[in-house]
Write a structure and sequence with these properties.
By secondary structure, this protein is mainly alpha-helical. It has 20 helices and two strands. Helix 3 runs antiparallel to helix 4, helix 7 packs antiparallel against helix 8 and helix 19 packs across helix 20.
Length: 398
């Protein structure tokens, strides 16, 4: 009948199978009464009731055993899973002793469990026993060949042992086993990068993005490779995808700012750096670059704020002290400026530019030529070259 829902055929359960067996046996061995001829007429004789009792007992035994086996198997699986969960939890908190105890119990309950073998391999790997770990991963894969996690971890061991070909093969198999296994794509791409095979790395990142279009790490790594290869348009497009999907991705905004600076688009660069520090307030380099842009635009107050943020997170940042000194000089805050210049050369004595700026400060703002000359000479010793400094220093020897 059109439109009618078809009846599903149910799989026979153990009880049904036993009942069918019982019926078939009863048909063969049991008839309630039998009509026989006797002297003077007929009589009814009892059937084979002893055999019926035997059959019933046999079938009941089958039912009990089947039920017991099912209950036992379920309980065993539950116990194994409990130990596996304990192992994962112990690994997550770094308790290798507890992890080993739990996984050993799981293996005792089910020596052929691929999950238990894999976790035992992880325990060994974290215990700095890579060879034994690899053996466990291989054992797990013999039981379950399409085990992406085990293949990925085996590849990690191979890579650490310098077996790049084996690692590449294992990662490729992991992706074939699970086309959405992001970790294997990322590890394979990094392996290609270490081999300087950038086209293969790009292709691998793109493969991951084909199945997970907004994967943050894949997008950022792809954009970085594209930028390094001079493919600025492609890199910019990838970063737009990334920041649209992950608006708080600080590193993506920072890279966007750097690329904008390269093409001298300071407005976009400043916007990107502000987004970066909003997402990650302690991103020191973004604060520094933003401060440098503000300084170049004559926005002294904004520049001061950014350089102070740099120093709040990283007090030993000599370049930030130097630029803050320049900002304070432009604001007429000479004592503060001198303090920052002195801090810069103290933190980084080989910093030629800091000696030059301190020399200029002493010469022009303190009118102290002896101290200015000392800084200029240090600047020259460090390889600095400036025609004006050459004339000043040279004139002192005439």
């Amino acid at each position: 009948m059109w439109g009618a829902t078809p009846l599903r055929r149910r799989s026979p359960c153990i009880a049904c199978c036993a009942a069918c067996t019982l019926i078939s046996l009863l048909r063969a061995v049991y008839s309630p009464t039998t009509l026989v001829s006797v002297e003077g007429g007929y009589a009814l004789i009892s059937g084979r009731r002893i055999q019926v009792a035997t059959v019933l007992g046999f079938c009941c035994t089958l039912l009990v055993l089947s039920t017991f086996h099912s209950v036992y198997a379920a309980a065993l699986q539950e116990s194994v899973q409990h130990e596996l969960d304990l192992t994962r939890a112990a690994l997550a908190r770094g308790d290798l002793k507890a992890a080993d105890e739990a996984v050993q119990k799981a293996l005792h309950l089910n020596p052929g469990s691929p999950q238990a073998l894999h976790l035992h391999g992880l325990v060994l790997l974290k215990s700095r026993k890579p060879t034994e770990a690899a053996e466990e991963f291989v054992r797990a894969l013999k039981v379950k060949p399409a085990f992406a996690e085990a293949l990925n971890d085996l590849a990690e061991v191979y890579a650490a042992q310098g077996k790049s070909a084996e690692a590449q093969q294992a990662l490729t198999k992991a992706i074939e086993a699970d086309p959405k296994h992001a970790e294997s794509y990322l590890d394979l791409a990094k392996l290609y990068e270490s081999q300087r095979d950038m086209p293969a790395a790009v292709k691998t990142y793109q493969g991951l993005l084909a199945v997970q279009p907004t994967h943050a790490e894949a997008l950022f790594s792809l954009a970085t490779l594209q930028d390094n290869a001079g493919e600025t348009k492609a890199a910019a497009e990838t970063l737009v995808r990334l920041t649209k999907a992950h608006p708080k991705h600080a590193d993506a905004w920072y890279l966007t700012g750097r690329m904008a600076e390269k093409r001298n688009d300071l407005v976009e660069a400043a916007y990107a750096y502000k987004q970066a520090v909003a997402a990650k307030p302690d991103l020191v380099d973004a604060h520094y670059n933003l401060g440098f842009i503000y300084r170049s635009q004559g926005k002294s107050a904004e520049a001061e704020r950014e350089f102070l943020e740099v120093l709040r997170y990283q007090p030993g940042y000599a370049e930030a002290h130097l630029n803050l000194g320049v900002v304070y000089t432009s604001m007429g805050m000479l004592d503060e400026a001198e303090r920052e210049y002195v801090s810069a050369v103290a933190l980084k004595p080989e910093y030629a530019e800091a000696h030059y700026n301190l020399g200029v400060f002493y010469e022009l703002h303190r009118k102290d030529m002896p101290r200015a000359l000392a800084q200029y000479r240090k600047y020259r010793e460090l390889g600095g070259r400036d025609d004006r400094v050459e004339r000043i220093v040279g004139s002192t020897f005439r």
